[in-house]
Amino acid sequence: MNVMIRGGGVAAACCAHLLGLNRIAVTMAPADPAPAPVVMLSDMALGLIRDVFAAPDLFAGLPRITRRIVAWGGGDPVAMPHAATIVAGAAALLPVTETGGAATTDLTIHAAAPLPGGETRRFGARGATAAPVALRDPADASDCWIESVESGWLFLIPAGTGQAWLLSVGADMEAALRQSRHVARRVRLAEAPRQSFDPSPRIACPPSGADWIGCGTAAIAFDPICGDGTAQAVREAILVSAILAAIGDGGDAQALRAHHDAMLLATMRRHLQLCAPFYRTGGQGDWWRAAHDALAEGHDWCTTRLAHAPEPRYMLQGYRLAERRLVS
């Protein structure tokens, strides 16, 4: 089997590596990456990536986050232990080697939008902006902050050497800082270009076709409020790579793609359920109610579609898929 991977993010890199381990020829087709100036990798996400690449020291020595401080719904800040690594340009640091070069492609993994067919189902309509900032107090260098404001929320991610990135979801950056009681007094906005991105959870419909399959944020994207986006991209890459390996071994391609699509629906439904309490308690205004209602409607939509999906036929065993009926 000859596979082309379109994209250059973490999901694309993980797919290329795992397919190479299965002796599947891979050709990379770079695509413009989605804006992600810095990634905060939880220790769970970091462990997944290190396992995929069998590289226990990957991303060692980079800035660490040791506390997560949350000021939510107008309440006082609550500090809790946290364990995460801050990585800039994570995908570029991963050891990816092409193994292809074939004249023809049997299947394409789209790890970057747009996908060849279908549409994207979004659960909410809200914008977000990322801006570089300087930390006023060096003591904040290992703390990430999350603060809800009147019509959105702020996420402060230190990036080492007194610098940080500030994400404003919903409200305009300046408006959010004016409403902020905690984050605003800890940062100074830098005179630098800002990056806009879509923070709404979303899923491709469908996320696969006869000769292609979506992966990473091109197929399913999480709300950044959950902090699980990179880990999900890695899990999605593991699933896609296992499905392609099974197809290469002569498995039922249609059934395997249906399994992939159903797993993504179940994952999105669970994600929407986890996000809902944050938007239910973040504020009392119209913005918060609309965001919460969109998540609830999305949960119902996923539930309805899952009711018509086939029962899970496969299960992951390591990085390979096995039929459930054959697993004791």
Please report which band the strand proportion falls in: under 5%, 5-15%, 15-25%, 25-35%, 35-45% or over 45%: 25-35%
Which stretches are poorly predicted, pLDDT < 50 over at least 5 residues? none
Q: What class do helices, strands and sheet pairing give?
A: alpha+beta
CATH class of the largest domain: Alpha Beta
Q: Please tally the helical runs, counting DSSP H or I stretches of 4 or more residues.
A: 6
Write the layout of secondary structure elements.
Blueprint: E1 2-6, H1 10-21, E2 25-29, E3 39-42, H2 43-53, E4 64-71, E5 78-87, E6 107-110, E7 119-122, E8 128-135, E9 143-149, E10 152-160, E11 163-169, H3 173-179, E12 187-189, E13 195-197, E14 202-205, E15 208-209, E16 212-214, E17 220-221, H4 229-248, H5 253-281, H6 286-307, E18 314-317, E19 320-323
Parallel strand pairs: 1-2, 1-6, 4-9, 6-16
Antiparallel strand pairs: 3-5, 4-5, 7-14, 8-11, 8-12, 8-13, 9-10, 10-11, 14-17, 15-16, 18-19
Helix pairs in contact: 1-4, 2-4, 4-5, 5-6
